[in-house]
Design the sequence.
């Protein structure tokens, strides 16, 4: 999972995952969203659905539509450990 290491440790390209879970994230369209399981699942499978404020549309993040529910759950569990 190079993407996970890169994104988390170096905060490269995308928003940091530290402190992400449970916060209100500002989106590019001016709205805000609560970062929960549903939002994270959608953002991983379809990054263009909601784009974080400060980033460009369309998202430079590749979609991961083929991750299983279990793989998504594992990523979310990991994000939750990053405070
Ligand atoms: C398995 C790999 C990845 C996972 C699980 C993942 C997960 C996520 C999540 C959950 C968000 C929403 C974050 C937030 O609300 O702050 C996000 C946003 C973002 N990610 Fe990733 N990401 C991955 C790979 C990548 C890669 C490889 C890139 C760069 C090429 C990238 C670039 C971005 C960018 C620019 C955003 C903000 C714009 C947007 O909302 O689409 N991500 N990512």
Sequence:
């Amino acid at each position: 999972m190079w993407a996970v290491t890169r994104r988390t440790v170096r905060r490269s390209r995308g928003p940091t995952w530290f402190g992400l879970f449970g916060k209100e994230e500002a989106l590019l369209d001016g709205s805000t969203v609560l970062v929960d399981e549903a939002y994270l699942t959608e953002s991983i499978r379809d990054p263009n659905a909601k784009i974080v404020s400060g980033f460009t549309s369309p998202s430079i993040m590749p979609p991961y539509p083929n991750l299983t529910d279990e793989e998504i759950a594992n990523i979310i569990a990991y994000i939750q450990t990053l405070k």
User: Anything to note?
Assistant: The beta strands are 24-26, 32-34. Residues 3-4, 7, 13-15, 20, 25, 35, 40, 43-44, 47, 51-52, 55, 59-62, 64, 75 surround protoporphyrin IX containing FE (CB under 6 Å). The longest helix spans residues 69-81. The domain at 2-81 is CATH 1.10.760.10 (Cytochrome Bc1 Complex; Chain D, domain 2).
